[in-house]
Amino acid sequence: MSAGEPFAAVDVIRSKRDGGRLSDEQIDWVVGAYTRGVVAEEQMSALAMAIFLRGMDSGEIARWTGAMIDSGERLSLHGSRPTVDKHSTGGVGDKITLPLAPLVAACGAAVPQLSGRGLGHTGGTLDKLESIPGWRAALSTEEIVRQLEEVGAVVCAATPTLAPADRKLYALRDVTATVESIPLIASSIMSKKIAEGSAGLVLDVKTGSGAFMKTREQAKELAEALVAIGKAHGVATTALITEMGTPLGRAVGNAVEVAESVEVLRGGGPADVVELTVALAREMLALAGLGSVDPAAVLASGEAYETWCRMIRAQDGDPEAPLPAPKHVHIVEAPADGVLSTLDAYAVGVAAWRLGAGRARKEDPVQAAAGILCHAKPGDRLSAGDPVLELHTDTPEALPAALHTLENSFTLQDSAPPATPVVLDVLR
Ligand code: URA
After folding, report:
1. Which of 319, 336, 403, 423 is the most exposed place for a label (fewest CB within 10 A)?
2. Which residue's alpha carbon is at the smallest distance from atom 1 of ligand 1?
3. How confident is the model over 269-312, as pLDDT tens digits?
4. What are the Cα distances from residue 34, in Å, to 25, 41, 58, 164, 247?
5. Is 3 helix (H, G, I), strand (E, B) or coil?
6. What CATH number is associated with residue 365?
7. Number of structural domains, the chain?
8. Which CATH number covers residue 304?
9. Could you give the count of Cα atoms lying within 13 Å of 9 in the half-sphere of its Cβ?
């Protein structure tokens, strides 16, 4: 035991390794001491693996989350509007934050969306918004508070002071095969969201090939853990379990997803994107005490689009500027007549990433114009030679790998598949 420390890391690790329950004091200490550098990386690796293998009960998870929140600053963003936020566990073509934040703001709430960048096959909200000329992701806390009061919606980079323990632990989990643990995922997500200071939170837990949680059972387990943490910390929390077996909407990438979001805000856009945006908005408004406002009517009125323009301008972006266009476009055609029965979200997400829309390492740049347009969605009838996917990139050398990923990414059959709902379950 280091001088002055109440515990020895090795005892905490041994206790979890042997299937024991960590005490509140052990959790507070180990998370804090890891953030201070007193618990070494190899010790936290061993503890993360012990938690991965042995799990934590709901009390341990809530306390672990609290310790991660206490490792940094807890913002207080309360102004004259009720605050409510949304978090998605990540999906392919999941641009919902873009239309949702201004929509909920136009309905009277304040939406502080402190977001991250994309890593792997699911895109990052900030990467998408950065395809808008001039738009700036980094805001000071004062700017966030002012924009929330004046516009009602802020989507910006999370400050490094929010849950620094999670930042450190997530990087460690990434290289020690300890990411896919429900207690660790749930506490990681909720520590950042609770530290952001929003009074209400709606979680969009995705399930299917393009999601973190491949099965409905896993998604439900994660959703239950997330809602329980919210309740334990006094944050009104609802979780929706939503479909991610096929890409959301038709656009997957950066600028293409911004363009599709603007279509939605202008009253058009793909039906699944509109449906999910309105469903999430309803839940957010209910938590904010604005359940009598109809988000579908506000979307149709054009007020959400006006709020979007103000939100983009407030961060130095030009909402009317043309979005970057790709240098190369390649079309994948239907090989035969038939009805598109499946279009695999994971394959499309990985292909868009390979085209340059995503990054392999945190420090890599992304291409604003890279991505994929899905010309057909499951249920659409196609003739041989019709376009199915439109690949966009500035680096044509990326095309063979993307095309390889897309082999077998869709299937055609004689008749239409049964329609799948977007929202599969709601947990309150
Ligand atoms: N997203 C997070 O923020 N944390 C995780 O552990 C997994 C996904």
Report:
1. 336
2. 189
3. 999 999 999 999 999 999 999 999 999 999 999 999 999 999 99
4. 14, 8, 22, 10, 38
5. coil
6. 3.90.1170.30
7. 2
8. 3.40.1030.10
9. 19
Distances in whole angstroms, Cα of residue 111 to Cα of each of 139, 146, 152, 190, 324: 15, 12, 6, 16, 27
Do 392 and 291 share a structural domain?
Answer: no
Taking the C-alpha atoms of residue 323 and residue 254, their distance in angstroms, rounded to an integer, is: 10
Specify the DSSP element, H or E, that contains 153: strand 153-157
pLDDT for 91: 93
> Can you tell me the mean pLDDT for 201-229?
96
pTM of the model: 0.95
Parallel, antiparallel, or unpaired for β 236-243 and 200-207?
parallel
- How far is Cα 216 from Cα 273, in angstroms, rounded to an integer? 20
423 in a structural domain: no
Residue nearest to atom 5 of ligand 1 (CA): 185
CA atoms of 279 and 136, how far apart (whole Å): 29
- Ligand 1: atom nearest CA of 192 is 3
Q: Is 36 a catalytic residue?
A: no
**Active site (annotated) includes residue 70:** no
- Quote the ligand 1 centre to 121 CA distance (angstroms): 14
What is the pLDDT confidence band of residue 115, given thresholds at 50, 70 and 90? Answer: confident
pLDDT digits (tens, 9 = 90+) for 192-203: 999 999 999 999
Helix (H) or strand (E) holding 348: helix 345-352
- DSSP tag of 354: I
- Does residue 166 fall inside a structural domain? no
